Sequence to fold (169 residues):
Amino acid sequence: AHYPIGKIATDTQDTKHRTAIIDLHISFSRFDLIFFDRYFDKTGNALESSLLSKTAIKTSKGIVKPDAIFMIQTPKQKELYVLELEMGKDKKKSFDKILAHSSALREKQLNRQLNFNAGYRVLLIFEHQNIMHSTLDLVKDSDLKEYYLCQSLEDFSDPQEGWINLLKE
Fold:
């Protein structure tokens, strides 16, 4: 049998990111989840080169690939959420994701893809609280502020508490 002789001792950023996404999935599982798709879940066929992330949202400006898309059944209605987990300290990348999601929200692309007629929320969870605040400082004003909820991973303990919008309200 052929096997690697050395041990793999490195920990990649993607491993930490995927693990955190799975931890968040577990946190949101306390609700009545209809589905929870993650960016590393694929559809299509690898042999036909048609693999695509289950979370891909096609917009006029390209494809947005959020980290997760999930739906919760509440006593009153179904609620749809898009989740972005921002690991690291790149506030420009985080700000660009906000712009991309704003475009998808305005075009209602995800609504068409999932045949969902109500609005949805974009949850932004930042690894570092200071990066969250400096990213939100880049957002001067937003007519879509009610569609975004932000929180730091450090403070995340209960999915129902601690959220702020893009204007830090």
About this structure: The first strand starts at residue 33 and ends at 38. The mean pLDDT is 87. The CA atoms of residues 102 and 144 lie 7 Å apart. Strands lie at 33-38, 42-43, 52-53, 57-59, 62-64, 68-73, 78-86, 120-126, 148-152.
